[in-house]
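Late entry, written up from scratch paper. The run itself happened at the end of the previous shift, but nothing got recorded in the book at the time, so transcribing now.
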Amino acid sequence: MNKEFRLPDVGEGLTEADIVTWRVKPGDVVTINQVIVEIETAKSLVELPSPFAGTVSRLLVEESTTVDVGTPIIEIDDGVGTAGPADAPAGPAEAPAGLGTVPQGSTAEQPPTTESATRQPVLVGYGVRPGSTSRRPRRDPSTRPGSYPASPSMTSAPPALAPASAPAPARAVPPTPTPAQATSAPGTPVKAPATPAKAPEAAQPGRGARALAKPPVRRLARDLGIDLAALAGSGPQGTVTRDDVERAAARPAPARSVVGDEERVPVRGVRKATAGAMVASAFTAPHVTEFLQVDVTDTVAAVRRLRELPEFTGVKVSPLLLVARALLTAVGRHPMVNSTWDEAAQEIVVKHYVNLGIAVATDRGLLVPSLKGAHSMSLTELAHGLDQLAATARSGKATPADLSGGTITITNVGVFGVDAGTPILTPGEAAILAFGAIRDMPWVVDGQLAVRKVTTLSLSFDHRIVDGELGSAVLRDVGSMLEDPIRMLAWS
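Output as recorded:
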């Protein structure tokens, strides 16, 4: 029996993902929990295990394709005998656009009752009684009180569907049914309608020629970026169906396109998620950024000393480690900076734990994994945690859990040779600290000019939560601890 594996939600709120690499091909034998595909979500690369054991029948989605959660991506034959609709050959007859498949375990898979033994299994129950008609007259759309928008999240069929326990009552057949009213032949499995049927939109006077397609299909094409006019419809009278659109979307598209002297790069995956988050943050939280130049000569010397200690063997020790420790100590002294603004409840949520976010530049774009429980870590644990966090993110193996739940963030712009910036808050956080490049600069020490190691710190904060006094106190504390690392011991 062929079983479909649908793209699951591997992270909170996931709506779509890209198929990156198939680890199996048709004919391969797979076991339960064997990794079969690698997908890229808006946050990370994820390996999906097989929920079934058996032989791969078909790969339903090609690599480099973006699919919605709930979309079937692979068929696996578990070797068990089939009955009823499961016996239908692959590639069922065309069904009206906007229709979904019958879920496993639904009433359509149950054995027929005596009353329905002579009827063919269809969407719900076993269809109409032999010799009867069940097509009701089509209502004018202008008089219909409401519609049911197509959505992957729908959990119930529209009220127009008949209950599974009773056959559909006979209704008069309209004199001249439209193509949109055509039904599949008896005995052909059909799919559950996600929306009431609507006639395909055709060309109208004064509007120019348009491809024939129903509104849900047009919406799907718009969401997938498919030009309906470029498709040859396989439905009645050349109507473009949902399957036509999905087949077009499944064709691998070039990652970039060049038109003349311009190159176009599709916005997807991490870049798309980052862009949305940054726009939401910039136009939701009122940002304020403060700057502070700091003499970090003693911090640089402390980093050199730490590298020599056996406790730090095999782990990267950089000034970022002490910047992180200084920020964690400052948060302990000023808890309000580690907060979230709850707009719905009109409350400020102060978090007495720190999940420290570290902005990491990767081949896939900017990622911000967070080190959970960083406030309770020793300096050695913090060093190992930061090292592992960055390595995991750069390798593309950061999980959705790694990339969510942060409470305050550090971005190290100094690694790019940049002195300072005005970082945008990670959505849901009240502050972000930018750590600039460390440079040899002239500095006054005890009234004398000297060459010292100097950096610039930038602290952006949500001015709804953090007043200028609090923001300045946090920034000054971090700076003081980097000027004299011994203060970290005194204030911890």
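Residues 83-139, 141-174, 176-208 have pLDDT under 50 and may be disordered.
(Scratch paper discarded after transcription.)
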